[in-house]
Amino acid sequence: MKAEFPLNEVVGAAIEAVSIRFNNLVYELKRKNVDVTVLSLGEAYFDVPLRTFDDLPFPTIYHYSHSRGIPELREAVARHYSREFHVDVDPATQLVMTVGSKAAIYFSMMAVLNPGDEVIIHEPTWVSYPEQVKLLGAKPVMMPYDCGVKDYGRFVTPRTKLIIVNNPHNPRGEVLSRADMEHLLGVARGAGAFILADEAYSDFVLDGSFTSFARVDPELRNTIVCNSISKNFGISGWRLGYVFSRADLIYQVLKLNQHVVTCPATILQYYVAKHWDDLQKTCRPQIVELAEKRKKVAALLERYGLGFLPGSSTFYFFVSSSPSKLSSEEFATRLLKEDHVAVVPGSGYGGSCDSFMRVSFGTEPLERIEAAFAKIRRLIDATK
Ligand code: PLP
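Above: the input record for the complex with pyridoxal-5'-phosphate. Below: its predicted structure, written as C-alpha coordinates.
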Protein backbone atom coordinates (compact mmCIF):
# COMPACT_ATOMS: atom_id res chain seq x y z
CA MET A 1 0.00 0.00 0.00
CA LYS A 2 1.27 3.46 -0.86
CA ALA A 3 2.13 5.51 2.21
CA GLU A 4 -0.08 8.53 2.59
CA PHE A 5 2.82 10.87 3.22
CA PRO A 6 5.83 9.19 1.58
CA LEU A 7 9.35 10.26 2.50
CA ASN A 8 12.30 10.72 0.20
CA GLU A 9 13.31 7.41 -1.41
CA VAL A 10 17.01 8.14 -1.76
CA VAL A 11 17.40 9.02 1.90
CA GLY A 12 15.15 6.08 2.80
CA ALA A 13 17.54 3.73 1.01
CA ALA A 14 20.62 5.10 2.80
CA ILE A 15 22.02 2.96 5.59
CA GLU A 16 23.22 4.16 8.96
CA ALA A 17 26.97 4.61 9.38
CA VAL A 18 27.76 1.16 10.81
CA SER A 19 30.55 2.47 13.06
CA ILE A 20 28.21 5.05 14.59
CA ARG A 21 25.43 2.44 14.96
CA PHE A 22 27.77 0.13 16.91
CA ASN A 23 29.06 2.99 19.02
CA ASN A 24 25.49 3.91 19.92
CA LEU A 25 25.07 0.33 21.23
CA VAL A 26 28.23 0.84 23.26
CA TYR A 27 26.86 4.06 24.79
CA GLU A 28 23.67 2.20 25.74
CA LEU A 29 25.59 -0.69 27.37
CA LYS A 30 27.86 1.73 29.23
CA ARG A 31 24.82 3.55 30.56
CA LYS A 32 23.81 0.19 32.10
CA ASN A 33 27.28 0.05 33.71
CA VAL A 34 28.55 -2.75 31.46
CA ASP A 35 32.34 -2.66 31.18
CA VAL A 36 32.80 -2.62 27.41
CA THR A 37 36.25 -2.77 25.80
CA VAL A 38 35.83 -0.16 23.08
CA LEU A 39 37.76 -0.98 19.92
CA SER A 40 35.11 0.63 17.73
CA LEU A 41 35.66 4.36 18.10
CA GLY A 42 36.91 6.39 15.15
CA GLU A 43 39.22 8.53 17.23
CA ALA A 44 42.14 8.44 19.62
CA TYR A 45 41.70 10.08 23.01
CA PHE A 46 44.42 12.66 23.45
CA ASP A 47 45.07 14.51 26.64
CA VAL A 48 44.32 18.04 25.41
CA PRO A 49 44.26 20.76 28.10
CA LEU A 50 41.44 23.31 27.91
CA ARG A 51 42.75 26.86 27.44
CA THR A 52 40.70 29.89 28.41
CA PHE A 53 38.01 31.22 26.10
CA ASP A 54 38.07 34.56 27.93
CA ASP A 55 40.62 36.19 25.62
CA LEU A 56 38.78 35.37 22.39
CA PRO A 57 37.25 38.40 20.62
CA PHE A 58 33.99 39.14 22.39
CA PRO A 59 31.25 39.60 21.19
CA THR A 60 32.47 38.50 17.70
CA ILE A 61 32.56 34.89 18.89
CA TYR A 62 28.78 34.98 19.38
CA HIS A 63 28.00 35.65 15.73
CA TYR A 64 28.18 34.13 12.28
CA SER A 65 31.65 34.30 10.78
CA HIS A 66 32.86 34.62 7.20
CA SER A 67 31.39 31.60 5.45
CA ARG A 68 34.83 30.54 4.15
CA GLY A 69 35.86 30.38 7.83
CA ILE A 70 37.68 33.12 9.77
CA PRO A 71 40.83 34.29 7.93
CA GLU A 72 43.05 33.50 10.95
CA LEU A 73 42.03 29.83 10.85
CA ARG A 74 42.33 29.55 7.07
CA GLU A 75 45.80 31.05 7.35
CA ALA A 76 46.72 28.57 10.11
CA VAL A 77 45.61 25.67 7.89
CA ALA A 78 47.54 27.01 4.89
CA ARG A 79 50.64 27.48 7.10
CA HIS A 80 50.28 23.90 8.37
CA TYR A 81 50.14 22.46 4.84
CA SER A 82 53.07 24.60 3.77
CA ARG A 83 55.26 23.79 6.82
CA GLU A 84 54.45 20.12 7.17
CA PHE A 85 53.65 18.99 3.65
CA HIS A 86 55.28 21.61 1.36
CA VAL A 87 51.99 22.52 -0.29
CA ASP A 88 51.00 26.08 -1.23
CA VAL A 89 47.34 26.95 -0.75
CA ASP A 90 45.83 30.42 -1.05
CA PRO A 91 43.67 30.74 2.09
CA ALA A 92 41.71 33.62 0.53
CA THR A 93 40.43 31.75 -2.52
CA GLN A 94 41.29 28.07 -2.39
CA LEU A 95 40.10 26.95 1.04
CA VAL A 96 36.83 26.66 2.95
CA MET A 97 36.36 25.67 6.60
CA THR A 98 33.38 23.39 7.15
CA VAL A 99 31.52 21.55 9.88
CA GLY A 100 33.85 18.54 10.08
CA SER A 101 35.52 17.04 7.03
CA LYS A 102 32.38 14.95 6.55
CA ALA A 103 30.66 18.08 5.23
CA ALA A 104 33.81 19.02 3.29
CA ILE A 105 33.69 15.67 1.49
CA TYR A 106 29.95 15.85 0.83
CA PHE A 107 30.04 19.43 -0.45
CA SER A 108 33.05 18.63 -2.67
CA MET A 109 31.20 15.71 -4.22
CA MET A 110 28.12 17.88 -4.66
CA ALA A 111 30.28 20.46 -6.44
CA VAL A 112 31.49 18.01 -9.11
CA LEU A 113 28.98 15.15 -9.47
CA ASN A 114 25.88 15.01 -11.65
CA PRO A 115 23.24 12.29 -11.20
CA GLY A 116 24.44 9.04 -12.79
CA ASP A 117 28.15 9.94 -12.54
CA GLU A 118 30.39 7.18 -11.21
CA VAL A 119 32.78 7.38 -8.27
CA ILE A 120 35.51 4.77 -7.84
CA ILE A 121 36.02 3.74 -4.22
CA HIS A 122 38.49 1.12 -3.03
CA GLU A 123 37.31 -1.21 -0.26
CA PRO A 124 37.58 -1.23 2.66
CA THR A 125 35.90 2.12 2.28
CA TRP A 126 35.29 4.70 4.98
CA VAL A 127 31.62 4.11 5.70
CA SER A 128 30.23 7.44 4.50
CA TYR A 129 31.72 7.69 0.98
CA PRO A 130 29.28 5.33 -0.79
CA GLU A 131 26.27 6.67 1.09
CA GLN A 132 27.17 10.27 0.31
CA VAL A 133 27.64 9.38 -3.37
CA LYS A 134 24.22 7.70 -3.46
CA LEU A 135 22.56 10.63 -1.68
CA LEU A 136 23.71 12.75 -4.63
CA GLY A 137 22.14 10.39 -7.17
CA ALA A 138 25.59 9.28 -8.35
CA LYS A 139 26.89 5.70 -8.40
CA PRO A 140 29.64 4.26 -6.20
CA VAL A 141 31.80 1.78 -8.13
CA MET A 142 33.42 -0.39 -5.50
CA MET A 143 36.85 -1.98 -5.96
CA PRO A 144 37.24 -5.13 -3.84
CA TYR A 145 39.78 -4.96 -1.02
CA ASP A 146 42.29 -7.27 -2.73
CA CYS A 147 42.71 -4.97 -5.76
CA GLY A 148 45.78 -2.76 -5.93
CA VAL A 149 46.54 0.72 -7.21
CA LYS A 150 47.26 -0.68 -10.68
CA ASP A 151 43.68 -2.03 -10.89
CA TYR A 152 41.91 1.36 -10.82
CA GLY A 153 42.01 1.64 -14.63
CA ARG A 154 39.80 -1.47 -14.93
CA PHE A 155 36.98 0.33 -13.10
CA VAL A 156 36.98 3.45 -15.27
CA THR A 157 33.99 3.95 -17.59
CA PRO A 158 32.83 6.96 -19.65
CA ARG A 159 30.77 7.99 -16.58
CA THR A 160 33.69 8.05 -14.14
CA LYS A 161 33.83 11.52 -12.58
CA LEU A 162 35.65 11.04 -9.30
CA ILE A 163 38.18 8.74 -7.64
CA ILE A 164 38.31 8.79 -3.85
CA VAL A 165 41.71 8.34 -2.26
CA ASN A 166 41.89 8.05 1.52
CA ASN A 167 45.51 8.57 2.53
CA PRO A 168 46.55 7.63 5.22
CA HIS A 169 43.87 4.99 5.10
CA ASN A 170 41.05 4.27 7.53
CA PRO A 171 40.91 1.33 8.26
CA ARG A 172 43.98 -0.21 6.57
CA GLY A 173 46.49 2.23 8.02
CA GLU A 174 48.18 2.23 4.61
CA VAL A 175 50.18 5.25 3.36
CA LEU A 176 50.34 5.72 -0.42
CA SER A 177 53.66 6.22 -2.18
CA ARG A 178 54.17 9.22 -4.43
CA ALA A 179 54.53 6.87 -7.41
CA ASP A 180 51.11 5.34 -6.62
CA MET A 181 49.57 8.80 -6.42
CA GLU A 182 51.12 9.81 -9.73
CA HIS A 183 49.63 6.68 -11.27
CA LEU A 184 46.20 7.53 -9.81
CA LEU A 185 46.38 11.10 -11.07
CA GLY A 186 47.18 9.72 -14.52
CA VAL A 187 44.13 7.42 -14.35
CA ALA A 188 41.91 10.32 -13.23
CA ARG A 189 43.19 12.66 -15.96
CA GLY A 190 42.77 9.96 -18.59
CA ALA A 191 39.16 9.58 -17.47
CA GLY A 192 38.49 13.33 -17.20
CA ALA A 193 37.81 12.76 -13.51
CA PHE A 194 38.66 14.44 -10.21
CA ILE A 195 40.63 12.99 -7.31
CA LEU A 196 39.13 13.55 -3.87
CA ALA A 197 42.02 13.05 -1.44
CA ASP A 198 40.78 12.56 2.10
CA GLU A 199 43.81 13.27 4.30
CA ALA A 200 42.03 13.17 7.69
CA TYR A 201 44.92 11.24 9.26
CA SER A 202 47.75 13.28 7.67
CA ASP A 203 49.56 14.01 10.94
CA PHE A 204 49.74 10.36 12.01
CA VAL A 205 52.67 9.54 9.72
CA LEU A 206 55.94 10.17 11.51
CA ASP A 207 58.50 8.70 9.12
CA GLY A 208 58.05 11.35 6.43
CA SER A 209 56.38 8.89 4.06
CA PHE A 210 53.14 10.89 3.77
CA THR A 211 52.76 13.00 0.63
CA SER A 212 49.73 15.23 0.25
CA PHE A 213 47.98 14.71 -3.07
CA ALA A 214 48.34 18.46 -3.57
CA ARG A 215 52.08 17.92 -4.10
CA VAL A 216 51.40 15.59 -6.98
CA ASP A 217 48.94 18.07 -8.53
CA PRO A 218 50.30 21.43 -7.26
CA GLU A 219 48.00 23.47 -9.50
CA LEU A 220 45.05 21.52 -8.06
CA ARG A 221 43.70 21.12 -11.58
CA ASN A 222 41.65 18.07 -10.73
CA THR A 223 42.52 17.41 -7.09
CA ILE A 224 40.37 18.23 -4.08
CA VAL A 225 41.95 17.80 -0.65
CA CYS A 226 39.77 17.36 2.44
CA ASN A 227 41.14 17.25 5.95
CA SER A 228 39.93 17.32 9.51
CA ILE A 229 40.82 18.80 12.83
CA SER A 230 38.99 15.91 14.54
CA LYS A 231 41.68 13.27 14.41
CA ASN A 232 44.92 15.25 14.20
CA PHE A 233 44.07 17.39 17.25
CA GLY A 234 41.83 14.89 19.09
CA ILE A 235 38.81 17.24 19.12
CA SER A 236 36.30 15.37 16.99
CA GLY A 237 33.32 16.86 18.83
CA TRP A 238 34.18 20.38 17.72
CA ARG A 239 33.27 19.53 14.12
CA LEU A 240 35.91 21.47 12.26
CA GLY A 241 37.18 20.38 8.87
CA TYR A 242 38.27 21.96 5.61
CA VAL A 243 38.65 21.52 1.90
CA PHE A 244 41.04 23.11 -0.57
CA SER A 245 41.22 22.96 -4.33
CA ARG A 246 41.27 25.29 -7.31
CA ALA A 247 39.43 28.54 -6.68
CA ASP A 248 36.46 28.00 -9.03
CA LEU A 249 35.66 24.64 -7.42
CA ILE A 250 36.04 26.05 -3.93
CA TYR A 251 33.63 28.82 -4.86
CA GLN A 252 31.00 26.11 -5.48
CA VAL A 253 31.74 24.62 -2.04
CA LEU A 254 31.50 28.09 -0.51
CA LYS A 255 27.95 28.46 -1.87
CA LEU A 256 27.01 25.10 -0.35
CA ASN A 257 28.50 26.14 3.00
CA GLN A 258 26.47 29.37 2.82
CA HIS A 259 23.19 27.63 2.07
CA VAL A 260 23.58 24.61 4.36
CA VAL A 261 25.66 25.56 7.42
CA THR A 262 26.69 29.25 7.00
CA CYS A 263 29.97 28.65 8.84
CA PRO A 264 31.45 26.38 11.50
CA ALA A 265 31.04 27.54 15.14
CA THR A 266 32.75 30.93 15.31
CA ILE A 267 33.98 30.55 18.90
CA LEU A 268 35.69 27.25 18.10
CA GLN A 269 37.31 28.66 14.96
CA TYR A 270 38.85 31.49 17.02
CA TYR A 271 40.02 29.06 19.70
CA VAL A 272 41.67 26.68 17.24
CA ALA A 273 43.26 29.52 15.23
CA LYS A 274 44.73 31.03 18.40
CA HIS A 275 46.00 27.73 19.78
CA TRP A 276 46.94 25.92 16.55
CA ASP A 277 50.67 25.62 17.32
CA ASP A 278 49.98 24.75 20.92
CA LEU A 279 47.49 22.02 19.92
CA GLN A 280 50.00 20.59 17.48
CA LYS A 281 52.74 20.62 20.12
CA THR A 282 50.42 18.91 22.61
CA CYS A 283 49.23 16.23 20.21
CA ARG A 284 52.53 15.38 18.48
CA PRO A 285 54.08 13.41 21.40
CA GLN A 286 50.81 11.55 21.84
CA ILE A 287 50.85 10.64 18.15
CA VAL A 288 54.41 9.36 18.66
CA GLU A 289 53.13 7.20 21.54
CA LEU A 290 50.31 5.89 19.33
CA ALA A 291 52.83 4.93 16.64
CA GLU A 292 54.77 2.93 19.26
CA LYS A 293 51.50 1.40 20.46
CA ARG A 294 50.68 0.39 16.87
CA LYS A 295 53.79 -1.80 16.77
CA LYS A 296 52.79 -3.46 20.06
CA VAL A 297 49.20 -4.01 18.91
CA ALA A 298 50.47 -5.53 15.64
CA ALA A 299 52.67 -7.91 17.67
CA LEU A 300 49.63 -8.88 19.80
CA LEU A 301 47.53 -9.55 16.70
CA GLU A 302 50.28 -11.83 15.44
CA ARG A 303 50.56 -13.57 18.82
CA TYR A 304 46.83 -14.39 18.70
CA GLY A 305 47.06 -15.51 15.08
CA LEU A 306 44.79 -12.69 13.88
CA GLY A 307 45.46 -11.66 10.27
CA PHE A 308 45.16 -8.02 9.18
CA LEU A 309 45.64 -5.95 6.06
CA PRO A 310 49.08 -4.32 5.77
CA GLY A 311 49.45 -0.74 6.96
CA SER A 312 51.81 1.41 8.98
CA SER A 313 49.84 4.39 10.26
CA THR A 314 46.69 5.62 12.06
CA PHE A 315 45.15 3.84 15.06
CA TYR A 316 43.20 1.25 13.07
CA PHE A 317 43.69 -2.33 11.96
CA PHE A 318 41.40 -4.16 9.55
CA VAL A 319 41.42 -7.61 11.12
CA SER A 320 40.28 -10.86 9.52
CA SER A 321 37.65 -13.02 11.23
CA SER A 322 38.40 -15.90 8.88
CA PRO A 323 37.78 -18.88 9.21
CA SER A 324 34.73 -17.96 11.33
CA LYS A 325 31.51 -18.80 9.49
CA LEU A 326 29.68 -15.83 11.02
CA SER A 327 28.96 -12.78 8.93
CA SER A 328 30.86 -9.75 10.21
CA GLU A 329 27.62 -8.28 11.59
CA GLU A 330 26.85 -11.52 13.50
CA PHE A 331 30.44 -11.71 14.68
CA ALA A 332 30.58 -8.14 15.97
CA THR A 333 27.13 -8.44 17.57
CA ARG A 334 28.04 -11.65 19.44
CA LEU A 335 31.39 -10.19 20.47
CA LEU A 336 29.64 -7.16 21.92
CA LYS A 337 26.73 -8.96 23.60
CA GLU A 338 28.64 -11.97 24.97
CA ASP A 339 32.18 -10.70 25.47
CA HIS A 340 31.57 -6.94 25.83
CA VAL A 341 34.14 -6.15 23.18
CA ALA A 342 33.10 -3.56 20.58
CA VAL A 343 34.53 -3.68 17.05
CA VAL A 344 32.98 -2.47 13.79
CA PRO A 345 31.76 -5.17 11.36
CA GLY A 346 33.67 -5.31 8.08
CA SER A 347 30.46 -5.33 6.02
CA GLY A 348 30.17 -1.60 6.65
CA TYR A 349 33.42 -1.16 4.71
CA GLY A 350 32.18 -2.81 1.52
CA GLY A 351 30.79 -6.02 0.06
CA SER A 352 34.22 -7.69 -0.15
CA CYS A 353 34.93 -7.12 3.56
CA ASP A 354 32.43 -9.38 5.31
CA SER A 355 35.15 -11.52 6.87
CA PHE A 356 36.81 -8.53 8.55
CA MET A 357 36.30 -6.20 11.50
CA ARG A 358 37.75 -2.78 12.19
CA VAL A 359 39.74 -2.55 15.39
CA SER A 360 40.68 0.88 16.74
CA PHE A 361 43.31 0.97 19.48
CA GLY A 362 43.06 4.69 20.19
CA THR A 363 41.08 4.58 23.41
CA GLU A 364 41.97 1.43 25.40
CA PRO A 365 45.17 0.43 27.24
CA LEU A 366 47.26 -2.45 25.89
CA GLU A 367 46.23 -4.97 28.61
CA ARG A 368 42.54 -4.58 27.78
CA ILE A 369 43.30 -4.76 24.05
CA GLU A 370 45.16 -8.05 24.60
CA ALA A 371 42.26 -9.49 26.64
CA ALA A 372 39.89 -8.47 23.83
CA PHE A 373 42.10 -10.18 21.21
CA ALA A 374 41.95 -13.40 23.26
CA LYS A 375 38.13 -13.17 23.13
CA ILE A 376 38.15 -12.50 19.38
CA ARG A 377 40.40 -15.55 18.87
CA ARG A 378 38.04 -17.67 20.99
CA LEU A 379 34.95 -16.56 19.05
CA ILE A 380 36.66 -17.26 15.72
CA ASP A 381 37.65 -20.75 16.90
CA ALA A 382 34.18 -21.45 18.29
CA THR A 383 32.45 -20.51 15.01
CA LYS A 384 34.75 -21.88 12.30
N1 PLP B 1 37.44 10.76 6.62
C1 PLP B 1 37.81 9.66 7.28
C2 PLP B 1 38.68 8.68 6.58
C3 PLP B 1 37.38 9.42 8.59
O1 PLP B 1 37.77 8.32 9.22
C4 PLP B 1 36.52 10.36 9.20
C5 PLP B 1 35.96 10.14 10.54
O2 PLP B 1 35.75 9.05 10.99
C6 PLP B 1 36.17 11.50 8.48
C7 PLP B 1 36.64 11.67 7.20
C8 PLP B 1 35.26 12.55 9.05
O3 PLP B 1 35.85 13.24 10.09
P1 PLP B 1 35.24 14.62 10.64
O4 PLP B 1 33.92 14.84 10.01
O5 PLP B 1 35.17 14.44 12.12
O6 PLP B 1 36.23 15.67 10.25
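Notes for the reader.
The pocket of pyridoxal-5'-phosphate is lined by residues 42, 100-102, 126, 166, 170, 198, 200, 228, 230, 236, 241 (CB under 6 Å).
The chain has two domains: 9-47+283-382, 60-278.
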